[in-house]
């Protein structure tokens, strides 16, 4: 559990620093250069992910609550929505006209969906912490960036492409999830 918590702390620091200390971050970029800063930033994120994965997989099972039997179905539905939102954050479609932070909202939906089916302590710590981080990041980004300027409307074709990519990505992510952990698909 210690490695999991260290990974979460590192994740929070690395992701929150640019949001709440922009002048300090900009000074660091000026000193190091954009490329080296991004390199260090990326390595720190990778280290946080490695620590979280190793810590989560090595944690003892301690039940906090017992998930409902129908939870897997809700999780599958929420995960389609999370994949859609994550894709929308990189899309040129219309979702960003209605959702200011689709990627952060995707993380929050992902975290909630995993809390629906995982009631052990390590899951509560991991998914709960990342869900809370997404909420904090939304508020911190809003405070840093000020008023939201909605993008101009985009062709509906872009939205249809996003739906197609979402379906494919959901299946691929589900298959990979089944290789490294429990299958998210019924009967898998």
What would you say this structure looks like, in words?
The chain is mainly α and 188 residues long. It has two domains: 1-59; 61-188, no CATH class. The chain is 74% helix and 0% strand. The protein is built from seven helices and no strands. It has helices spanning 2-20, 22-32, 34-58, 71-88, 102-117, 121-145, 156-180. Helix 2 crosses helix 3 (34-58), helix 4 packs antiparallel against helix 5 and helix 5 (102-117) runs antiparallel to helix 6. The two termini are 28 Å apart. The model has no long low-confidence stretch (mean pLDDT 94).
Keywords:
188 residues; mainly alpha; 2 domains; 74% helix; globular; transmembrane helix; membrane; NnrU_dom
- N-C termini distance: 28 Å
Domain tally: 2
Structural class: mainly alpha
How many helices? The count is 7
* Regions with little confidence, pLDDT below 50 for 5+ residues: none
Order of helices and strands: HHHHHHH
How would a textbook summarize the main sheet?
none
Specify the oligomeric state.
Answer: single chain
Beta-strand percentage range = under 5%
Q: What share of residues is helical?
A: over 70%
Tell the overall outline. Answer: globular
Mean pLDDT, all residues = 94
